[in-house]
Write a structure and sequence with these properties.
single chain; 140 residues; mainly alpha; 59% helix; globular
């Protein structure tokens, strides 16, 4: 039984390590897409800040909004030293207030997640889903 527990722990820690490698480049990709006004010329991209549904153009400047959010959030926590704080930082970034409306809401799910691994999985899938929206591949 102890061996089984240790196997489960090592598979969990390897899953965590894998997510810690995968997530930071996704955050960079998300930011590059979400902050670029050109992204929103693709009318397949869902954004609640559109001037008119199905038409290009937003009523906010996504670059200015996200620069302000990053400034307000302060330094990004380390995904290795403090993965939980990192997850909440990313959730606040991709679900900014005022709303940009390009991502599914992650904060409630993160608050309910029982483990670091689950929080990392939520952030990973939220980033992938939002990137799929921002590229027009799979609108929200």
């Amino acid at each position: 039984e102890l061996g089984m527990m240790m196997d489960s722990e090592s598979s969990s820690s390897s899953k965590i390590a894998s997510l810690q490698q995968q997530i930071p480049p996704l955050v960079d990709q998300w930011y590059a897409l979400a902050s670029n006004v050109q992204t929103y010329h693709n009318t397949n991209v869902t954004a609640s800040t559109r001037i008119q549904k199905g038409a290009p153009g937003l009523w906010v400047d996504p670059q200015k909004l996200l620069q302000r959010i990053v400034q307000q959030l302060g330094p990004k926590p380390s995904i290795h030293k403090d993965p939980t704080s990192y997850c909440f930082y990313v959730a606040a970034l991709i679900n900014p207030l005022p709303v940009l409306g390009v991502s599914v809401e992650l904060r409630g799910l993160l608050l309910e997640a029982p483990t670091v691994q689950r929080r990392l999985e939520i952030v990973h899938s939220g980033l992938v889903r939002s990137i799929d929206n921002l590229t027009g591949k799979r609108p929200l």
